[in-house]
């Protein structure tokens, strides 16, 4: 195993199409030591499916970010609500957070939300006219999950577009100061909303979240932290799921035509769409608390470990001919929502939003086509998620 000389996940070619990079790294070794950023820092990158699945459940890989960075020099200034959330903690703190979060996304709760989600899609598409051009990202993929998660949390309508913009900045891979500033804007704003809900009796969604957090043993700061995580994670990846899915279908017209003929296939197609172009390219931060061995590679204690679902989902050892979109494939083992105790609790909601959006698109506008060549779309410059900046369509 040879260590790359430069960070392979910051190359402009990676942001445009990460899969050749992932394939090259995985062929060398499914677990590799790679440089990260500047200053001679390194991490271990996991690109194999079996190895990623194993790592997701290994208790020696901690998500306690504060523990890793304690005593290490840093020029970062993230808001505590952003850097000390459920995704940056281990049990028992993680268990308390997750117990509250999971109640929001039960099968029954998501089923209750279906009519509301359908109305939101109907409202967003009401201005769409055949023969005109729309941007699928700006006109559907962004506002749909933002509206739904803000409704779920009780965020006022007047705040939603602003919070979505700050969330977008939070995933900027090129500007640490922009990320830090966005974290404070989100954290401060949600602190105000949570404090107001706590001080004012009411029966709104945010009041219910505050009560659930108190009953679950979360303190006021942890309540803000959970609200921030649900807001950001609750819409960012769903936006990318919708955009990536539509682009994949446009690039596979026979598959798209199949869904047009039979929209009832859409729920079953989501696993393959999630596998084919995962909205989560690299999972959130982990570090080794003890020496361990993954995929035949020794990982010393004290190193960051990056698990790449985007790479694992294209591992030919798990999925033959992995670069082909195949709706008949059994893709249920994909890792786009993670695996183990940190698996995304909002997965049922994300799937439901994507299903309703895709069904509306193929039934209302069966002849939709890209307004630009299929290779033209531009992608967000972030290694954590994979999503389009825009997707112009002709209806």
UniProtKB/TrEMBL annotation:
Question: Which family would the database say this protein is a member of?
Answer: Belongs to the cytochrome P450 family.
Q: What is the lineage of its organism?
A: Bacteria, Bacillati, Actinomycetota, Actinomycetes, Kitasatosporales
> Among its keywords, does the record have Iron?
yes
On the tree of life, the source organism's domain of life is Bacteria
> From the UniProt record, which GO molecular function terms apply?
heme binding; iron ion binding; monooxygenase activity; oxidoreductase activity, acting on paired donors, with incorporation or reduction of molecular oxygen
List, alphabetically, the Pfam families matched: p450 (PF00067)
Q: What is this protein called?
A: Cytochrome P450
Alphabetical keyword list: Heme, Iron, Metal-binding, Monooxygenase, Oxidoreductase
> Known InterPro entries for this protein?
Cyt_P450, Cyt_P450_B, Cyt_P450_CS, Cyt_P450_sf
Q: Which CDD domains does the annotation name?
A: CYP107-like
What is the organism field in this record?
A: Streptomyces roseus
């Amino acid at each position: 195993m040879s260590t790359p000389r430069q960070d392979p996940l910051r190359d402009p070619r990676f942001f445009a199409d990460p899969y050749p990079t992932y394939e090259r790294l995985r062929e060398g070794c499914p677990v590799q030591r790679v440089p990260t950023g500047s200053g001679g820092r390194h991490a271990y990158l996991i690109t194999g499916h079996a190895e990623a699945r194993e790592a997701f459940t290994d208790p020696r890989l901690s998500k306690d970010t504060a523990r890793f960075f304690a005593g290490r020099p840093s020029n970062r200034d993230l808001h505590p609500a952003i850097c000390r959330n459920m995704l940056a903690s281990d049990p028992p703190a993680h268990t308390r957070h997750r117990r509250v979060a999971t109640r929001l996304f039960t099968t029954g709760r998501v089923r209750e939300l279906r009519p509301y989600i359908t109305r939101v899609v109907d409202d967003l598409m009401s201005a769409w006219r055949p023969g005109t051009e729309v941007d699928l990202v700006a006109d559907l993929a962004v506002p749909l999950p933002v509206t739904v998660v803000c409704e779920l949390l009780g965020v006022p309508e007047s705040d939603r577009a602003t919070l979505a913009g700050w969330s977008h900045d939070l995933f900027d891979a090129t500007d640490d100061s922009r990320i830090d500033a966005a974290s404070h804007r989100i954290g401060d704003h949600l602190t105000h909303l949570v404090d107001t809900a706590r001080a004012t009796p009411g029966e709104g969604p945010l009041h219910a979240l505050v009560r659930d957090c108190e009953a679950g043993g979360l303190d006021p700061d942890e309540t803000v932290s959970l609200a921030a995580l649900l807001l950001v994670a609750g819409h960012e990846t769903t936006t990318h799921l919708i955009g990536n899915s539509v682009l994949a279908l446009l690039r596979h017209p026979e598959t798209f035509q199949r869904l047009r003929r039979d929209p009832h296939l859409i729920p079953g197609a989501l696993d393959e769409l999630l596998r084919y172009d995962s909205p989560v390219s690299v999972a959130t931060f982990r570090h080794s608390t003890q020496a361990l061995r993954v995929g035949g590679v020794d990982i010393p204690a004290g190193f960051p470990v990056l698990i790449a679902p985007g790479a694992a989902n294209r591992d030919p050892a798990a999925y033959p001919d992995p670069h082909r979109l195949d709706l008949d494939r059994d893709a249920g083992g994909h890792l786009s929502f993670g695996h183990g105790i940190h698996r995304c609790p909002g997965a049922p909601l994300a799937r439901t939003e994507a299903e309703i959006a895709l069904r509306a698109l193929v039934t209302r506008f069966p002849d939709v086509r890209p307004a630009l060549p299929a290779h033209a779309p531009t992608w967000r410059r972030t290694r954590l998620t994979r999503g389009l900046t825009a997707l112009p369509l002709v209806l």
